[in-house]
Every structure is written in C-alpha cells, then in structure tokens.
User: Which sequence fits this backbone?
C-alpha cells in the first residue's frame, strides 16, 4: 500500500478518548522492546513518527495513527516490562484489556514476537487470551535481520508450534532495520481488513 498520509490523531487511556470516525483499527501487541513502534514507522515510511527507544516501556498510551484516511494502526504499551510499579502495570493492563476486548472497530491484532527467541510465557498468554476473545491475530516475527537467513524457517516453526498457532492466523517475518517483509505485511493487512 502506498502511504500518502499518516498522522498520530488520538492518544487515549480510556474509551471516551478513542476516535469516533469508525475506521477499521489494527492494534500492535507484543513484549516491550519487541519493535512495535519501529514496525509502525517502517510500514508508514515515517522515521520517528512513533517514538521508539532502546529502553523498554517507551509507549504508555494507546496511540492511534490514521493512515490514508482509511484505517488506524494502534500502538499499544508492551507487556512483560518489569520496571514499572504494580499499580501502574495493573492500570495499563486494564486499559489494554478494555480496548482489545470491547472495541468494535478493532479488526485484527498484529502480535509481534522476537524472531530470535521462543515465545515467552507472556507471549503465549497474550495469544491465548486473544483467541479466547475470537480476535484475528497476525503474528509478526520481528528483528529478522538479527538471525541468519538459513535459520529463518526453523525459528518460524518453533514460534508457530510453541504458540499452538491457529492456521487462519498468518505468521510473517519482518525487519524494521532492512524493511524485509513489508510488502507481505501490507498484503496480509489489506486482505484481513478487506481494503
Ligand atoms: P515499547 O514501546 O517499550 O513497548 O517497545 P516497542 O515494542 O515499541 O519497541 P521499539 O520499536 O521502541 O524498539 C525497541 C528497540 O528495538 C529499538 O532500539 C529499535 O531500534 C530496535 N528494533 C526494533 N525493530 C528492530 C528490527 O527489526 N531489527 C533490529 N535490529 N532492531 C530493531
Ligand atoms: Mg513502543
């Protein structure tokens, strides 16, 4: 997809702050530091539009990026980040849960998993939780540039097996560093959203 317009239009911590123009939404979920904000920037060709950081816990609100006036990417705070207080974590958890389980405009979730490692317990919990709610998931294995090509297939099969992936949930490989997988990701998104 050719991105001609991409802006951060809404920042929300509660439903009253979500957009009201009823465009389809696609949310990014994944462990802190897995590359959610970097994924958004690469897909939109906008360096620095979504704030990224080597420090986990950068994204702390629901950030709605409107694309070509036809859909939103929703950047979501990452899970599994230890350095926040319990109270803070509980509040984030509630904010994310409310959004993912109740939002009608949410058409699918892009769940990002680090391609280098086996899915964590949190990754599995997240995937199963979304399956429980019947949310379509597009799995994206990130940081592909950090493993050699000869190992890609093996790492993908491990991720697929460990998550007990449903066949209808695609599993893609991606690198925000090189742009690998970008076209495939757009194709998959467009077919899921029927754009
Ligand atoms: P939170 O907002 O904390 O949940 O993190 P996030 O998932 O948004 O991660 P972010 O995009 O901020 O990236 C975290 C770090 O990983 C940054 O230093 C990025 O440059 C790096 N990174 C992200 N994607 C890739 C990738 O595909 N390849 C490589 N080599 N580094 C990446
Ligand atoms: Mg982020």
Assistant:
């Amino acid at each position: 997809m050719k991105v001609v317009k991409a802006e951060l239009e809404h920042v929300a911590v509660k439903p009253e702050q979500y957009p009201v123009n009823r465009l389809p939404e696609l949310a990014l979920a994944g462990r802190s530091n897995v590359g959610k904000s970097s994924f958004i920037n690469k897909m939109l060709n906008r360096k620095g539009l979504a704030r990224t950081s080597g420090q986990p816990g950068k994204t702390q609100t629901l950030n709605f990026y409107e694309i070509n006036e036809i859909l939103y990417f929703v950047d979501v705070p990452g899970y599994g980040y230890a350095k926040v207080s319990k109270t803070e974590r509980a509040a984030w958890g509630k904010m994310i849960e409310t959004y993912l389980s109740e939002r009608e405009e949410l058409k699918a979730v892009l769940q990002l998993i680090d391609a280098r490692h086996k899915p964590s317990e949190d990754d599995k919990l997240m995937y199963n939780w979304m399956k429980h709610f019947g949310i379509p998931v597009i799995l994206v294995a990130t940081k592909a540039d950090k493993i050699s090509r000869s190992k890609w297939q093996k790492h993908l099969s491990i991720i697929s097996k460990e998550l007990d992936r449903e066949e209808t949930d695609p599993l893609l490989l991606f690198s925000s560093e090189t742009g690998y997988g970008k076209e495939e990701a757009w194709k998959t998104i467009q077919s899921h959203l029927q754009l």
Remarks:
- Residues 145 and 175 are 6 Å apart (CA to CA).
- Residues 12-193 form a domain with the Rossmann fold fold (CATH 3.40.50.300).
